[in-house]
């Protein structure tokens, strides 16, 4: 399974795709846990998992235990309630995108790992 990562250092976000077998590092981790970047090519970095979404685009929710789909009841300002579908807080094969926040910086800057793509001239 390919996993799309959105890495945020507080000022800028970078996108990165992790192929299998490196993506297996994330299986079983929960929102809020730390993961070392050495396992997927970002040596010296440490990240906090702070979000993600499933194959169908449903967001992960910290309050739902497990990795399955769940219906959550959201209260509206007008007093009504709406059911929303969300995924649990554990990363599984159903998760395709993960948001990471830098907890510890490595020796190289993220810009060196993710160089800017040159715009194609028409």
Notable characteristics:
1 helix; 122 residues; five-stranded mixed sheet; mainly beta
Structure overview:
- The chain has 1 helix and 7 strands.
- 21% of the residues are buried.
- The strands form 2 sheets. It has a 5-stranded mixed beta sheet, with no helix packed on it. A two-stranded antiparallel ribbon has the order 5-6.
- It has one helix spanning 110-113, and strands spanning 3-8, 13-18, 34-36, 46-54, 69-75, 81-87, 95-104.
- The longest helix has 4 residues, at 110-113.
- It has one domain (3-113).
- Strand 5 and strand 6 form a beta hairpin.
- It is elongated, with a radius of gyration of 16 Å.
- The mean pLDDT is 90.
- The chain has 122 residues and is mainly β.
Q: How would the blueprint of this fold be written?
A:
Elements: E1 3-8, E2 13-18, E3 34-36, E4 46-54, E5 69-75, E6 81-87, E7 95-104, H1 110-113
Parallel strand pairs: 1-7
Antiparallel strand pairs: 1-2, 3-4, 4-7, 5-6
Rounded mean pLDDT score: 90
Identify the strand order in the major beta sheet. Answer: 2-1-7-4-3
* Secondary-structure class: mainly beta
SSE sequence, one letter per element: EEEEEEEH
Distance between the termini: 35 Å
Give the count of helical stretches. Answer: 1
Shape field: elongated
Strand tally, please? 7
Name the poorly predicted regions: none
């Amino acid at each position: 399974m390919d996993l799309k990562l959105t890495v945020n250092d507080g000022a800028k976000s970078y996108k990165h795709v992790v192929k299998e077998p490196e993506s297996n590092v994330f299986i079983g981790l929960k929102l809020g846990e730390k993961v070392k970047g050495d396992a997927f090519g970002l040596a010296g970095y440490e990240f906090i998992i702070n979000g993600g979404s499933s194959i169908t685009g449903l967001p992960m929710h910290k309050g739902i235990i497990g990795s399955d789909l769940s219906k959550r009841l959201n209260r509206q300002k007008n007093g009504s309630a709406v059911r929303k579908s969300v995924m649990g807080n554990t990363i599984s094969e159903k998760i395709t995108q993960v948001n990471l926040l830098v907890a510890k910086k490595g020796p190289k800057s993220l810009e060196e790992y993710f160089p800017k793509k040159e715009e194609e001239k028409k």
